[in-house]
Design brief:
Blueprint: E1 3-7, E2 16-22, E3 25-28, E4 34-38, E5 48-53, E6 59-66, E7 71-76, H1 84-102
Antiparallel strand pairs: 1-2, 2-3, 4-5, 5-6, 6-7
Amino acid sequence: MKTTLRAKPGGQDNHVSASKAFGGQLVKTEYQYIRFDDYSNTKQKTGRWMCVNRIHGSFLGEVKWYPGWRQYCFEPVGHAVFSKGCMDDIGDFIRQLMDARKRR
């Protein structure tokens, strides 16, 4: 998988956005407070992604394919609490995975 790092335009803050090639297209993997690390098995048809807090590095959950629903879903760990912004980022990440899957 190819990783591309891009600084935000204007250089107003030091937030870096990373993308990975998935299904032939780039998928954004880093957001302001969370990132998604690919830990797929090469034998799997679909990807598995760990959702990790960017500041503390703690594992927050995973995004994986649910065959019964035929879509990627987020499965949080324990009693993790997410703001609307983090939930929007998780939704954006899943939307990109679904778009990449449809384009295969």
